[in-house]
Every structure is written in C-alpha cells, then in structure tokens.
Amino acid sequence: LTRVGIGNLNGALFYIVSELTYSSLFGILTCLPGDYPLVVREYHDGIYYVFSYYLARIFSYIPLFSLDGLLMLYVCYWMVGFSSSVTQVIFATIIAFLVEQSSSAFGVMLACISPSYPIAVALAGPLLTLLSLTGGLFANVGTLPPYVSWIQYLSWFRYGFEALAINQWQEVNGVNSTDWNTQRRDEVLSMFSFRADRFVIDLLLMVAFILGFYAIGYFGLSLRVFKSR
C-alpha cells in the first residue's frame, strides 16, 4: 500500500459515511413534516397518542433507511477494495447501520422541532456542513482550534469515520498483508488523530446519539402538538 492508496481508501470511507447521512436525513425531512397536520387532528380527536405515532414512525424508518445503505456499503466494499475479512465486514455493517440510524434520528429530530419544512431544511444545511467539516477527513481533529474542536464531539461523521478507519486498517488483505502490523495501523490512524482503542467508544456514542436525538424529537413534537389547540 502506498500513501496515495491509503489516502484514497480513507476518502472512500468518509464518502460512505456522507452518503449514508445525506440520503436518509433529507429523505426523512422531505416526508415527515407532511404528517404533522394529520397527527394534530387525530391526537386531539383521541385516536392515538403522540408517543404511539412517534414510535411507529421510528420503527417504519429503521428498515427503510438501513437496507439501502447496507446494499451500497457491500457494493462499495468489494468495488473499492476494502479489507474484507468476515470480521471486518460484520463490523462495517454495524458501523454503517449506526451511522445511518444516527442521521435518521437527527432528521426526525429536526423535522419534529422545526415549525415547517423550509425551516428544517434551512437548518439541516449549515449543521451538516459543520458536522462534516469536523468529521476527520477535511481537517485533523487534533489540530482544530478550541472554538471549533468541540463540534467534533457532536458529530456522528467523526465517530463513524473513525470506527470505519479503525476497522479497515485492523488488517489488510493483499500482497502486503503479511507486512501489516499494529504500528502501521496506528500510523495511518494518527494522520487524523484517531486511536484504535476508541472503537467501542465510537459505537456507544453513536447509540447515544440515536437515543438522544429521538428523545429530543419526541419532546419537541409533543410540545408542538399539545400547543396546537
């Protein structure tokens, strides 16, 4: 592996994170706000609780915004030439699922707390720009100035990219695989100020993002519905 080849693979990993994010988030922002008038009317008519609707929506989005991303991941995995041991593919599947669910939860949250679709989309653009810029590819997260560096800790781009990079460079297939070791892995990760021992933490933080975003979205939607009459 050359330095250029390593850079290409890292760029492809970040592209996967970005594609998993934008497709699901804007898909949700396009569809979900249209439900609001119906939810308000049927809630105040006593047909169902806000929580029932919210939970049903979440469960309906999980397969819808998971299968497409996993299909893209598997196609990219072998077309790009990522390391493809069984363990690495399984972990990549878990990471991709968490990234897509993080972006889905963020999209649900934005749609639920925003008073209209145009405002939700207007908020999504700048927020995603900040989160992606601090995701690790465009700037080394260890060299960001203090007034910007805190944003990385709110970015699933950063945790998803770091987890995919750790997984990719854990072992490498191909002619140079016998020469690969943890020292070379750490050298590659240090280019972004990533650390291999953060793998589990990255996964847990994305789970926390999912739960946190959904919780904020629920309280935001409930408040809007309760105050609508």
UniProtKB/TrEMBL annotation:
Keyword Cytoplasm found: no
Localization of this protein: Membrane
Record membrane topology: Multi-pass membrane protein
Highest taxon above the source species: Eukaryota
Record-level GO cellular component terms: plasma membrane
InterPro entries for the chain: ABC2_TM (IPR013525), ABCG_transporters (IPR050352)
Signal peptide annotation: none
Stretches assigned to the ABC-2 type transporter transmembrane domain: 8-169
Keywords, comma-separated and alphabetical: Membrane, Transmembrane, Transmembrane helix, Transport
Bilayer-crossing regions: 12-34, 46-65, 71-99, 199-221
One example GO MF annotation: ABC-type transporter activity
Positions in coiled-coil regions: none
Pfam families named among the record's database cross-references: ABC2_membrane
Identification of the protein by name: ABC-2 type transporter transmembrane domain-containing protein
